[in-house]
Amino acid sequence: MRIGILSLEPNNYSNKRIIEAAENNGHYCEILNTKRCYLNIESESPEVHYDGKVLPHYDVIIPRIGPSITKYGMAVVRQFEAMGTFCLNSSASIGTSRDKLAAHQALAINRIPMPDTAFANSPRDTENIIDLTTGAPLVVKLLESSQGKGVVLAETKKAASSVISAFQKLNAPFIIQEFIKDVNGSDLRLFVIGGKVVASMMRSASDDDFRSNLHAGGKATKTKISQQERKIAKQAANAMGLNIAGVDILRSSGGPKVLEVNSSPGLQGIENTNNIDVASMIIDYLEKKLGLSKIKKWYIGGQWTESDGSIDNAFYAVGSVRYEPASQLSIGGYFIPEYDSFSSYWKRIVYRMGFVSSKTGMILNDKAIENTGITFGVGLPVAGFSNVNMGFELGKLGAGGESLIEENYVNIRI
Prior knowledge:
By secondary structure, this protein is α+β, with helices and mostly antiparallel strands. It has helices at 13-24, 70-82, 91-98, 100-109, 126-132, 157-169, 227-240, 268-274, 278-289, 313-316, and strands at residues 2-6, 28-32, 37-40, 47-50, 53-54, 60-63, 86-87, 117-118, 138-142, 151-154, 174-178, 186-193, 196-204, 219-221, 244-252, 255-262, 297-306, 321-323, 327-336, 350-364, 367-381, 387-398, 406-413. The chain is 24% helix and 37% strand.
């Protein structure tokens, strides 16, 4: 596969791990600076241009778009979608998850538990929206915040009114939420790939903060999750339409509640905490989604055949020759690497081997004529997806003894 990662951070841990996992599986993967992409929007042949050239076809685009360029990033993803490229997360799902108001409305539509949330446009409704939640303390969030930025804890109703007033003067849309005090500044991060929770961790805020985000100084520890938490995480990712998601859940006294759904979850915390390879899980999911087989496979088979030995010995027997039922046992296998034009040459070689042992059914001077051999072969890649097959066989044929012949042989085939 040819894979492109839309990102502004080529040295980001997550990007480097995805590239490493992709290349280990024989795929070609590169970073595309989202801001450097520009679009030729046509009905017949839409294109994405980059650095003065039309980008080649990509089998997969992995959007890792920062909040600062969400709208432009979504436009680039939409363009790749128009070109028929599979995008790990769609532009629509990214837009829903990034807009906190839309995200919580999607959760509400799907009856997924979350903290009480309120939204208003007019300054005259400040007091009313505060009362819609549980009252102070409460959390005020910008609609397009991430990594704990743009999130403020208002301890009192007066403080909440001041924060809301400040955001309104800046024309910065926001929501307010009840503050779940009994979670003690901690939450769960569940990593979802293709509708399955593959890893989880507990994040805890530092002593002087209520935000558990690792970028805000929080700490991560390994934890076990309940079936209910697992179910809610899968439902939340599905409600957003995300194939890959980081779902943040609060363990409140009233049960688990979804705090946020992240469309570009980082890998560093989840991998290091659990000592697992999430990046390879992402590549495995993409291979299955696009119908690709695993990169390395051994195929082994065997066959046993027999003849009924119905030759009329009275007619065919000559001198000391007679016949009996014949049989043959064949066992073989071959190794198929990923057959991808972007793989290295050596990873595309097909290796074969086999063993055969047969009784020909001919008995000469009371000695059975037998054939035993071992075969080896390789399929060498040439232009396109063709192979040149080369093989040789080592074996022994005949029967030893007085006046009999037993020979060793070598066969070479191309």
